[in-house]
Every structure is written in C-alpha cells, then in structure tokens.
C-alpha cells in the first residue's frame, strides 16, 4: 500500500465572485522514500493541495475526495486528531522560514518543543535531541547557538532550522512548499541536497512543490504538472519531460530561463512566456482549464473536461530509478494525438 493516496481531491473556496473550484479532482499516490514534484505557475493550486494534506486549509474551504495516509482517511478528522498527526507523522516546510519560526523564542526551544509535545521527552532529553537535529541539518556549533533567536541566523540557516523542526518527530511524509524560492541559488542547492539526504536516511515520502522545472527535474523522480487546479500531465519526471504530451507542459519548457552568454552590445533576449495570463478561478472554462491559452484549442476543449489518457512508455525507455515501481504517464488533453505530430519543445 502506498504511504499516501489522494483521490479526487477537490477544494472549493468562497471568493467575492462566489464559490470557486480551486483544486479539481487531483489524484496521486506516493510510496515511502519517494519524491513527488508538484509544478505549475503561481495560482495553479499547489499550496492549497499541500495545505489540504496537512489539514491546514482555511476554515471556509470545502474539501471533497479522499486523502489516506497509510490507509487512514484524513479528511474529516477532528482538529485534535489532525494536530496529533502534524509534526508527528506529517510535517511541512514553507517558502519563507519566518512563517514557521517564532521571532521571540530561541531556535533551540522551537526545535525541542515538538519533541516534548509529541514524543513526551523531558526537558534535558528534548534539548539533547534538538541539538543533534540542528547539527544534522548543518547548523554549526548547535549547542552554543541553541539559545539564539531566528534573526541571528541567515535565510539559509533559518530554513535549515525549520527543516530540523519538521524532522523532530520523524515524520513519514514531508511536504516542502517552494522551500528554496526565497534563497540564493547556491544555498538552494544545499537545502535541496539536504532534503534528498534526509528522505533517503529516513525513508520519508516527500512532496516537493516548485514552479522551477530545474528543481523538480533534479529532485523528484515523479511529478504532477498542474494548471488551473487540475493535474494536466503526470508520470515519471524523465518520461514527462522527454515527451511533454500536454501543451501546458511544453509551454513551461519554452518559458524556462536558459543560460545565455551575453554578447557585447546585443539587447538581452526576451524570455518567452506562455501566451495569455492565468485566468481568475471564476473565469476558468468549464472544459479544459488551458483552453483559450493553447494553440491547439478546438470547441470541444471548452465544452468538455478531458479525461485521463494513459500513454505507452516509449520502447526501450530507461528503467526508473525506483526499479520496483513506475508511475504511469497520464495526460488530460483532447488534442494529444494532434500534438504528438508536433516535435516536443515546440511552442503550444
Ligand atoms: N483563502 C483563499 N481564498 C480564496 N482564494 C484562495 C485562497 N487561497 C488561495 N486561493 C486561490 O486559489 C488558487 C490557488 O492558490 P495556491 O494553491 O496558493 O496556488 P499556488 O501555490 O500554485 O501558487 C489561486 O487562484 C488563489 O488565488
Ligand atoms: Mg504556493
């Protein structure tokens, strides 16, 4: 049984334009020790999906479908039971470490607190374990710096501290929502490397959220490409990135920054973008969310939500890094046959 099984997760939110569907029938499964990437432009529903897994959605949100952790249904659990799961079996790392850290408490206290709360450790034992955790995530001289406050650390160190907090009780599932977006590129690599090591060390399952294709390509062996609250394409990362069956996935690739060697005197190359803007949730078409921004759109795309289509693995494809298990390659696009005739990487 997979550790995490999400089926038809749907989230409605009240807005000034009425109740809108912000997440639409998202389904996936995740094994222990595996990393699933969630990618898509800002506003596509990544964070809401993450918050739903943690039971941290805003109170007005209406949630449907199912989220099972090790077979146990999480939707509909009481706040008290969810609270016992969070920080214990489930943990989350956010984009901005200061949202997780309390500026008026020492970092040591903040790492030790969940150990006392969830594991019932005494003060001394919790303190010793907290120092170990801080050392593990790369805070030098953790014992000496135990009593210092968040503002005395750099952004990268603060993110390491929130990772130590998330790890404190040995979670089975870790959700990292844009964990490196606020950090310098070199620090980003170190934090992502640390997360990978920890996943392997503890056989955790990791949901890694990013709008950055490079981050997902390097750190997640399977992924969901999201647009307008829907999963438009999913599968093993190398297969999806090689094939790019959905026009939106192709658009993401076309829009990614490339390394340029600047030519003296030349105007900087404009970054291509996906045509149009992400519509407001209330304005999403009844059919495919990408209809209207996509060059392959027909009438039918507006009328009908495309069902999942299973794509055959290309003959002779390399075995997945997780030898025992391969996520199937699924696309939701009515026009995928027409698109297949087009070379991958072509503009949508
Ligand atoms: N509390 C809320 N009330 C109303 N709309 C929200 C709320 N939170 C998020 N949204 C909307 O839901 C959509 C998805 O948001 P989010 O999951 O945060 O996107 P992402 O993390 O992919 O950038 C966005 O259009 C956002 O404006
Ligand atoms: Mg987000």
Describe, in short, the structure shown.
With 348 residues, the chain is an alpha/beta fold. It folds into two domains: 251 residues, P-loop containing nucleotide triphosphate hydrolases (Rossmann fold, 3-Layer(aba) Sandwich); 72 residues, no CATH class. The chain is built from 13 helices and twelve strands.
What is the name of the CATH class of the largest domain? Alpha Beta
CATH superfamily of the largest domain, please?
A: P-loop containing nucleotide triphosphate hydrolases
Helix content: 25-40%
**Class per helix and strand makeup:** alpha/beta
**N-to-C order of helices and strands:** EEEHEEHEHHHHHEHEHEEHHHEEH
Ligands bound, unique: adenosine-5'-diphosphate, magnesium ion
The helix count comes to 13
Would you tell me the overall average pLDDT? 89
Broad shape: globular
Provide the spatial order of strands within the biggest beta sheet: 6-7-8-3-9-10-12-11
Strand content: 15-25%
Question: How would you describe this protein?
Answer:
The protein has 13 helices and 12 strands. The strands form 2 sheets. Strands 6-7-8-3-9-10-12-11 form an 8-stranded mixed β-sheet, with helices on both faces. Strand 9 and strand 10 form a beta hairpin. With 348 residues, it is α/β, with parallel strands linked by helices. About 1% of the residues have low confidence. The chain has 2 domains: 251 residues, P-loop containing nucleotide triphosphate hydrolases (Rossmann fold, 3-Layer(aba) Sandwich); 72 residues, no CATH class. It is globular, with a radius of gyration of 21 Å. Helix 4 packs across helix 5. Bound molecules: adenosine-5'-diphosphate (ADP) and magnesium ion (MG). Magnesium ion binds next to helix 1.
């Amino acid at each position: 049984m997979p550790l995490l099984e999400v089926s038809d997760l749907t989230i409605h939110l009240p807005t000034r334009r009425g109740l809108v569907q912000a997440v639409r029938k998202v389904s996936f499964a995740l094994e222990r020790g595996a990393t699933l990437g969630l990618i898509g432009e800002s506003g596509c529903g990544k964070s809401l999906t993450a918050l739903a897994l943690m039971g941290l959605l805003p109170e007005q949100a209406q949630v449907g479908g199912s989220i099972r952790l090790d077979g146990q249904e999480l939707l509909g659990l009481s706040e008290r039971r969810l609270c016992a799961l969070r920080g214990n079996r489930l943990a989350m790392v956010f984009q901005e470490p200061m949202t997780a850290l309390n500026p008026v408490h020492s970092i040591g206290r903040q790492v030790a607190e969940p150990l006392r709360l969830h594991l019932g450790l005494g003060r001394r034992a919790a303190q010793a374990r907290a120092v170990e955790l801080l050392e593990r995530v790369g805070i030098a001289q953790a014992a000496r710096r135990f009593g210092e406050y968040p503002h005395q650390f750099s952004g990268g160190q603060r993110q390491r501290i929130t990772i130590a907090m998330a790890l404190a009780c040995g979670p089975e599932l870790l959700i990292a929502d844009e964990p490196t977006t606020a950090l310098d590129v070199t620090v980003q690599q170190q934090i992502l490397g640390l997360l990978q090591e920890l996943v392997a060390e503890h056989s955790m399952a990791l949901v890694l959220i990013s709008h950055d294709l490079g981050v997902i390509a390097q750190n997640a062996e399977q992924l969901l490409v999201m647009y307008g609250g829907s999963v438009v394409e999913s599968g093993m990362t190398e297969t999806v990135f090689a094939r790019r069956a959905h026009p939106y996935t192709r658009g993401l690739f076309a829009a990614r920054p490339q390394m340029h060697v600047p030519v003296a005197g030349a105007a900087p190359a404009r970054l291509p973008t996906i045509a149009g803007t992400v519509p407001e949730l209330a304005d999403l078409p009844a059919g495919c969310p990408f209809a209207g921004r996509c060059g392959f759109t027909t009438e039918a795309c507006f009328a009908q939500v495309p069902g999942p289509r299973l794509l055959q693995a290309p003959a002779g494809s390399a075995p997945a890094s997780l030898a025992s298990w391969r996520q199937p390659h699924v696309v939701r696009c009515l026009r995928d046959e027409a698109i297949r005739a087009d070379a991958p990487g072509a503009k949508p």
